[in-house]
Amino acid sequence: MVINLDEDLLSLVIDFAQRLGAEYAEARLHRTKQLGCLLRNGVPEPALIGDAFGIGMRVIHSGSLAFSATNDLSKENIKNMVEKAVKRARASSPLLKHKVLLSEEKSIKADWKSEEKKSVDSVDFDDLFGLLKDIDNLIKDGKNGVSFPNRLLASSILLEEKIYLNSNGVMMKSRVPRVGFSSYITTFYKGEITAITIPPGYSQLGESGGWEVIGRLKIFEYIEKETENLSLSVKSEQKPPREKVDVILGPQVSGIIAHESAGHPGEADRILGREAAQAGESYLKPNDLGIKIGSKEACVSDDPTIPHSNGFYLYDDEGVPARKRKLIDKGIIREFLHNRATAYEFKISSNGSSRATRYDREPIIRMANTFVEPGDYSLDELFEDVKLGVYIKSFMEWNIDDKRLNQRYVGLEAYLIERGEMKGMVKKPVLEITTPRLWSSVDARSKEVEFVGATCGKGDPMQGIPVWTGGPNMRLRAIRLGER
User: Fold this and answer.
1) For the domain that residue 31 is a member of, what is the CATH number?
2) DSSP 3-state percent helix, strand, coil across the chain (nearest 5)
3) Taking each helix axis from N to C terminus, what angle separates 219-235 and 125-139, rounded to the nearest 10 degrees?
4) What are the backbone angles phi and psi of residue 15, rounded to the nearest 5°?
């Protein structure tokens, strides 16, 4: 266990870096343990076992920041790592147009963890494979005349343990286990093959916590319901209406929209152009706080502190307390996601958005649990006021441009709405729309919020980090849908 190791190793990093002239130093002892199982058509695939453990550190010297990491924890090697980092920072300093400075934050000491009733340390391959076999037995024969000839089921455990120390006096210890399930299924009906995931949209069932998460997810009931609806959607032949209609988006769809069109473009490093070569730019500019992007019903937040969430944390990897961030409030851009460096540039405090996936990855600005806020309506009330519309409950694919401005979502489980009542299924309706048009079209949200797990990709080297996406049912007015 990381928290039982010698914390003096981190003190050595900080002290030695300062003796070499560093203006700032931080060190993170970071362990990520993974256990993953795959079941393909009822047959176990080779299991995944991972255990990455080491120290990642950053220094600022002469206004230049450098990162280094090692999994050799001998004191001699740690000193060599620090020396190299300081030399790189010193050497690159004359090339910088702008010096790296960090926002002032409180010196905090904390020991925090995710609630864990049944420790993941006691879970083995038999538990994971047993779960997958039971699920496969539930769906292997197909549903409603639709066969599932190819089924790839995955279960996983990820355990993160960290100790963090910096030269500002911050010291953190943390433990966050996560449990997840995902699946890839090929359907076959009347000669047509469709590849989908359950949960839809390449999502996951995932939470932080111990093995008790499987019980909280009610995974068997969920799979039974989703495969039933999947089979019916595959059989549907009704095309979406060609005229403008009202569209109600389910929580999974509103969630991916929040993540892609509000979360990513709201990352301050991306706004400053520092993601352009890897992930793209943003339609937002540094001075866009306060601009109107949508209607008063457009409300999007990101909150790492939700208990049991897949993106749960209480302090980020710069030792800054986590809190809820209101990205869009009543149609107005209110807040960006920040680390300490971007917060300094914006002359504010960091909102605790800096995370790294492993010891050998540098902390960068990340989302946690990004969602559309709940509204005041029941789902029935959203339907009541729709003369002609489509309810897109889930989606099967999406894409969005590099600036997060033009986007496309293809519905999976979708229904026609006539005079306030849900009729038959609609086959693969396509919502293709710009970000301002989308958020300006929202006129109502339901009271209940639902979440699904996901892995958010960013960085080079790539860092896939656990998150939640979610939201309520959300109604859009006067939308023209396409078909796939």
Assistant:
1) 3.30.2290.10
2) 25, 40, 35
3) 40
4) -65, -45
